[in-house]
Automatic annotation (TrEMBL):
Source organism per UniProt: Streptomyces celluloflavus
Keyword hit for Transmembrane helix: yes
Domain DUF4328: start-end pairs: 68-219
Descriptive protein name: DUF4328 domain-containing protein
A family per Pfam: DUF4328
Superkingdom per UniProt: Bacteria
Residue intervals passing through the bilayer: 28-49, 81-101, 121-137, 158-176, 196-214
């Protein structure tokens, strides 16, 4: 019995997370910033189209005969075109932003590997999964920010303002879309278009804050990488348990 071969241990069923490797986020940040600027332009076009549509509806309510069928078709075409270019810009920006976001998160592991509350995969799934997408991305962004920050960069007001406006835009946009889909009378369409206009205007501000956030976090990581591993990460004071 003592000469029986010993069975080898079972193979590890779970693959370890790949080691974090520092990679420059500068090029991706530039691409994201350019695409976010395109989003701002498309939102400005959408605001103009919203205003034109709202003005036409106001005229229909006050004096129906003052609006021609050709004008209605023209305004409706601009409104639909604005929605198409907005959607295209948002999809392209979202894809590149997620690539940048993931890279920034991995870089933050190099600076402070012990600090992150969420795994890397949530940099993607956190935006997609319902309900958790209301706070997971911000949690990851905040951990990444703090891991990349120094003592003089403790505040994350820029991140908080961007996230608050992004959530506000999403909620108002969702409500405005449902309001517009259910609208049947000119008065209901008028109110729905007003909500859509507010959404597009807020999205301009949110996109500008997103540009500032991307540029600031990228700059923090770039400067920290240039200084080398001697710079410790900023870990905020946590309340005692």
């Amino acid at each position: 019995m003592s000469n029986m071969p010993v069975a080898p241990p079972p193979p590890n069923r779970y693959q370890p997370v790949p080691r974090a490797v520092l990679r420059s986020p500068v090029g991706l940040a530039k691409a994201v910033s350019i695409l976010l600027a395109v989003v701002v332009v498309t939102d400005m076009f959408a605001v103009w189209a919203d205003y034109q549509s709202l003005d036409m509806v106001n005229r229909l309510i006050s004096d129906f005969d003052s609006v021609t069928g050709q004008e209605i078709d023209s305004v409706d075409m601009r409104y639909r075109l604005a929605g198409i270019v907005q959607s295209a810009a948002l999809i392209a920006t979202g894809v590149v932003f997620l690539v940048w976001f993931h890279r920034a998160r991995v870089n933050a592991e190099v600076f402070a590997p012990e600090y992150h509350a969420k795994k890397r995969g949530w940099t993607i799934w956190g935006w997609i999964c319902p309900v958790v997408n209301l706070w997971f991305p911000r949690r990851i962004a905040l951990d990444t920010w703090n891991a990349s920050a120094d003592e003089n960069q403790r505040g994350a007001k820029l991140l908080n303002w961007w996230w608050a406006l992004w959530l506000m835009t999403e909620f108002i946009g969702w409500a405005a879309g449902r309001q517009y889909a259910r609208a049947t009378t000119p008065e209901e369409i008028q109110r729905a278009l007003g909500s859509v206009l507010v959404t597009d205007a807020l999205d301009i501000v949110a996109a500008i804050l997103a540009i500032l956030f991307v540029r600031r976090l990228t700059q923090m990581q770039h400067e920290k990488a240039l200084r080398g591993p001697s710079a410790p990460p900023f870990v905020p004071n946590l309340p005692a348990l």
